[in-house]
Amino acid sequence: MVISKKSWFTMICLACLMLVLGACSSNNSSEESSSEKKVTDAVGEMTFPANPKKILAPNMEDYLVTLGLTPAAQWSIGTSVHTYLQDKLADVPLISWDMPIEDVIEAEPDLIMFESEAAIQEGMYEEYTKVAPTYVFKSEDTEDWRTQLTVMGELFGKKDTAEKAIEDYEQKAEDAKAQVKEAIGDESAAIIWVTGGQFFVFEGDRYASNVLYKDLGIKMPTYISDLGESQDVWQAISLEALADLDADHLFIAAAANEEGIETLENSSVYKSIPAVEKDQVYFFEDSSNWTTNAKIANDVTIDLVLESIKK
Asked: How many structural domains are present in the chain?
């Protein structure tokens, strides 16, 4: 068969078109796939697996869900979990916060992730690496949730997803900040967590405080600014110490029937707090979003703050 010059030209054009379409298809699917790669974490160099399906990342479930990933098991303390995530994780089994090796083995992960070396029980790192590749975040990558989400997005081949999530959050926070300003002006606010009969006041940089003071621009009470930066370990405060809490609004996280609430509400110290005198105290039975600093948790916190101050 004789092929004319015109036919040859047409075939060449079609071949080029197929190559271009193939390249585009490959680029479009880059968010859904990644290849095995050498990376350096807090411990050293490790091989990050390609497209891991069964991921154990205790206390980082918020990040996985944000990236469209489902963990193999979810972090828990007893039966307590990240309640605000249960619409996404209701069917995901629990794993204890201290990651018992027998439970890790049973979960059959193809990737294990820890927020820091300190999050790993002493002497257990090598045991985990025998089960699956284990990635430990560097401290500089977890100082801000945006940075950590970006790093995770790059590791999982979901950089665009991470960037979009951060952009969406920044827009949400900006819109909410304007609403907060309109609702309460320059009034201040603080957060207290009541658990086990003890009282924990959030410093200006602890968990949801970042949402209140940095993202929403709510005024920080002098009492909170005087606390300084948060330490790794929570420090309970005495009921008497709350006498100096100069907050106009008070967000209190405490489980139903928490013993400390009755003690708190019956005290003259509590009744003298400006927020209490102004009837601007808001109670929440779920503390999980308030004690987490990640994208979805912060979304929930913004929604709750707006609902509260607009009543």
From this structure: 2
